[in-house]
User: Fold this.
Amino acid sequence: DQQVKQNSPSLSVQEGRISILNCDYTNSMFDYFLWYKKYPAEGPTFLISISSIKDKNEDGRFTVFLNKSAKHLSLHIVPSQPGDSAVYFCAARIDGKIIFGKGTRLHILP
Amino acid sequence: DTGVSQNPRHKITKRGQNVTFRCDPISEHNRLYWYRQTLGQGPEFLTYFQNEAQLEKSRLLSDRFSAERPKGSFSTLEIQRTEQGDSAMYLCATTGGLEKLFFGSGTQLSVL
Assistant:
């Protein structure tokens, strides 16, 4: 039972444009949502999070939007840079446990 | 470097052997998590500790897996009688109580 779903395995975006990564979830009891970035041979690195009581959180080039009625969140990266090429994981917290989606591989094209 | 250290980085073993991995967390972090990740998948929750107490263990986790965190410091994850399906990256992550997890670089296990 995949409670956190990332339906796009990969995404290619031109450098300088906006990257939008999407995530859907099924459990309305999640209280925090997080985005992680992962390079090969490294552990995931925290990017940005949002509480379930908010609908937007911004940190530099990264903005996360939460739509609770649709059980959907998205990560916007603008402008996209070559170093943003990585796998991005959406995650959600419930009862102290953090559950991850399968990830979306983002390719930033020159 | 997140401050979470995992050893070894790589482990190759034969089917049926036992293996043990170690995680040294950020010193002030009281929660410690173990995850497993296979190719094309996200990190899969295995278990987590609050100090030395193991609070939850995934129901998908076989009895061959056991984890400890003596004195609430470092943690070990042991897999007994390894199977080829155990081949994966084993990730440790810690937190000081906030939602943000700090991950180690992982231990890549290959079972031949």
